[in-house]
Amino acid sequence: MAPERTNEQWISDLSDDGAARDAAIQYLITWLERRLFFYLRERSDLARVNADELHQMAADFAQDSVLIIIEKYAQFAGRSKFTTWAAKIAVHQALGEMRRARWRDLSLDELTQNGSFEPRFLSSDQRSPETEAIQKQVMAIVMDVMQRDLSERQRLALYSRLVLGVPIAILAEQMQTNTNALYKLIHDGRKRLKERLLEKGISPEEVLSTFR
Which of 86, 132, 156, 212 has the most crowded Cβ, counting Cβ within 10 A? Predict the structure, then answer.
């Protein structure tokens, strides 16, 4: 592998429209593949993935990341090494892609537990009996409001996004809508939920503080 470029050389080479640019891109892909492989190898959730599969994942993520870096390299401010900056983009891209892959094959039925909207953290055994009792009481009120006062789609969108953390793009696909419409659905659902909770004398802040 050729000696690594300086920050100035990276910007100059990527700005070129010939061989220098091609060489810089190929070097960057190779460098990111190695960096991503070592990053993925250290993740506990990938402990059972063999080395060949990790290498393939790293190669795919590196290719995707380089496309983003080529679009954004002019934004590089020079406060770190260019490769450090590029690696952060690559890791962020890899995390996002793994997150999307985790949800991609799920059906909407699998986003809830036996048709209920009870958050999974309520089954945790890490809470004291007192905390558990308070949390269950608060969540019973929240879930009752969601069941009674929200539409089925509002309820599903809020639960999937805010409780389970399903990415917007994946949730929009699962609900057969677009992201703009989904943002509005969630906004309207949250507004209605807040209004109904306030009518019951409970603020959203009080709900959140119960689970801190």
Answer: 86
